[in-house]
Design a protein that fits this description.
By secondary structure, the protein is an alpha/beta fold. The protein folds into three domains: 242 residues, 4-Layer Sandwich (Glutamine Phosphoribosylpyrophosphate, subunit 1, domain 1); 198 residues, Glucose-6-phosphate isomerase like protein, domain 1 (Rossmann fold), CATH 3.40.50.10490; 139 residues, Glucose-6-phosphate isomerase like protein, domain 1 (Rossmann fold). The protein is built from 18 helices and 24 strands. Bound molecules: 5-amino-5-deoxy-1-O-phosphono-D-mannitol (M6R).
């Protein structure tokens, strides 16, 4: 939540910062702002609303020419999304400018003390307090002032600070939230995520918990809160600007849907040995520990939770290890039973979701072995887990998750098969056969994508509906939940997903003449039961849209609209049924004239609890 950029170098900082903010806008778009150090002042411009409002304001004023700057795109927490609450925030002297991601939990006390001390605060934000605290502690050494302030802050934060006295310095600080330094030549960067500076450098340096970064054009110095210089891990980003651009598509989401075959290929690549069996060295668990496991607990939020549910079906089927899936925000508060014979899997695209991170930390305190399934190298969830299995989906910019979910599900299948392989619950030939089926999936997703015109037409046709229901059984159920979430978040339609067997226990009351009901019905042993559920719905007037497998005609008589997917093993079918759900939601939202990439009230990376 909130995107942050800092730059020091020879270029006009405002250009570099705006480019970074454009790439980070998925993190929040309630307001945007920049501050540039020039002529011994800090020049600040900020506007409520999307980045385009700020760009317009900048185009109508005198150019900012300084080469050191910071910027922010906001997802509002403290205070409404207004100009006044937009970052950067400044102190009483106007010399200190601060941008912030996170929530400062002791902000009320800090603010009170500042006001008693004579400071004038103008916004409702927690961030503004930081600017005034830096002002109080500053004696010429900006990094020392930021270090001293950080020691007093509760909660989580990334701060980036500029000062009028320092035309070649930006100072960053990090606790619990992401901050990464971009290592350039004669220029350096700070950002919430590498996409912000990928157009300038692919070399990045990790900034760790409670560290302070001094960024100058020719150096990056990282210290701990006591001022001791610490070594940092540097890494090379293996994708480039093209991956972070729309590449001719109207929306990032449409591009990301099309990228799914390649993304799944990447998830699978290099993870098989010469015998066609799995090699998951990343798990870092000994065979003995795997054989000792008593349970698997998967924690996740939103779409990642749906991937986790699919993972549960696969893990239990193949390994017979009891597996539970938990909404991360609920997990730690109910005192869950977790111990050293538990494998805790945290599924998160961003690897920064606060709820998932806290669930992971709780499980680790109970001595569970932890595995991150994440798309983001070096993310907090990855760094705090015992092991990380990277999904390798590439950057996902659209707020609505597509290829990330697809690759998470693929990774969860791999985890299930690997545990089965090591525990011997499936013989090697069967594991090989499942892996061969998985390797067919990218091609089958391509085939599914080629059939989507019928789905787009249907979405346009239904786009005035205000309620759509989704039902499924077995692995069709998580896909019903995911289909409903996609439509809800993109088109603001009241969309609900249910296990098909459950509708008669209440939800069927929602059905009236013409209510659209999407039925996830890939070929499965339970299809005959699903047929009964669909008949119950049709008897009450439902208009049924059935997603089913080539060659399976069981549902055809009960479908007002039929969407066919290619045949695969039923356990793997979510990798195909998900595609029409994504296309349906995106086209539905487009037909309503909505912004498919940036739905209202949302942010891609949810770093508050
Ligand atoms: O980064 P994460 O995977 O942890 O994010 C979890 C959810 O916030 C995310 O999946 C969200 O539900 C998406 N908007 C769904 O499209």
């Amino acid at each position: 939540m909130c995107g942050i950029v800092g730059y020091v170098g020879p270029k006009r900082a405002v250009d570099v910062v705006l480019e970074g903010l454009r790439r980070l806008e998925y993190r929040g778009y309630d307001s945007a702002g920049v501050a540039v150090v020039e002529n011994a002042t800090v020049d600040v411009e900020r506007r409520a609303g999307k980045l385009s409002n700020l760009e317009k304001a900048l185009s109508e004023r005198e150019q900012m020419t300084g080469t050191t700057g910071i910027g922010h795109t906001r997802w509002a927490t403290h205070g409404a999304p207004t100009d006044r609450n937009a970052h950067p925030h400044v102190d009483c002297t106007g010399k200190v400018a601060v941008v912030h991601n996170g929530t400062i939990e002791n902000f009320a006390e800090l603010r009170h003390a500042l006001e008693v001390g004579g400071h004038q605060l103008h916004s409702e934000t927690d961030t503004e307090a930081v600017a005034h605290m830096v002002e109080e502690r500053y004696d010429g050494d900006l990094a020392a002032a930021v270090r001293s302030v950080c020691k007093e802050l509760g909660g989580s934060f990334v701060l980036v600070v500029a000062h009028a006295d320092h035309p070649d310095l930006v100072v960053g600080a990090r606790r619990n939230l992401p901050l990464v330094a971009g290592v350039g030549e004669g220029e350096n960067f700070l950002a919430s995520d590498v996409t912000a500076f990928i157009g300038h450098t692919r070399n990045a340096r990790v900034v760790d918990q409670d560290q302070i970064v001094e960024l100058r054009s020719d150096s990056i110095t990282v210290t701990d809160l006591e001022g001791t210089v610490v070594d940092g891990e540097q890494y090379h980003v293996d994708w480039d600007t093209d991956a972070a651009e729309k590449g001719g598509y109207e929306f990032f989401m449409l591009k990301e849907i099309e990228e799914q075959p390649a993304a799944v290929r990447e998830t699978l690549a290099g993870r098989l040995d010469s015998k066609g069996l799995l090699r998951l060295d990343e798990l870092a668990l000994s065979d003995e520990d795997i054989r000792d496991l008593e349970q698997v607990v998967v924690v996740a939020c939103g779409s990642s939770y749906h991937s986790a549910m699919v993972g549960k079906y696969a893990i239990e089927r193949w390994t017979r290890i009891a597996t539970s899936v938990e909404i991360a925000s609920e997990f730690r508060y109910r005192d869950p039973v977790v111990n050293r014979r538990t494998l805790l899997v945290a599924v998160s695209q961003s690897g920064e979701t606060a709820d998932t991170l806290e669930a992971l930390r709780h499980a680790r305190q109970q001595r569970a072995w932890s595995l991150a399934v994440t798309n983001t190298v070096g993310s907090t969830v990855a760094r705090e887990s015992d092991a990380a299995l990277y999904t390798r989906g590439g950057p996902e910019v659209a707020v609505a998750s597509t290829k990330a979910v697809m690759t998470q599900m693929t990774a969860m299948y791999l985890v299930g098969l690997y545990l089965a392989q090591v525990r011997g619950t499936r013989d090697p030939d069967e594991v090989r056969a499942h892996l061969r089926d998985l390797q067919e999936i990218p091609h089958l997703i391509e085939e599914t994508l080629s059939r989507m015109e019928v789905v787009r037409e249907l979405a346009r046709d239904l786009s005035s509906e205000e309620r759509v229901l989704f039902i499924g059984r077995h692995v069709g159920y998580p896909m019903a939940l995911e289909g409903a979430l996609k439509l809800k978040e993109l088109a603001y339609v009241s969309a609900e997903g249910f296990p098909a067997g459950e509708i008669k226990h209440g939800p069927i009351a929602l059905v009236e003449q013409g209510t659209p009901v999407v039925v996830l019905a890939p070929r499965h042993a339970l299809t005959s039961k699903l047929v009964t559920n669909v008949q119950e719905l049709r008897a009450r007037g439902a208009r049924t849209i059935v997603v089913t497998t080539d060659g399976d005609d069981a549902m055809e008589p009960y479908a007002d609209h039929l969407i066919r997917i290619p045949d695969t093993k039923s356990l793997l079918s979510p990798l195909l049924t998900m595609v029409p759900m994504q296309v349906f939601a995106a086209e539905f939202a487009k037909a309503r004239g909505l912004d498919v990439d940036q739905p209202r009230n949302l942010a891609k990376s949810v770093t508050v609890e």
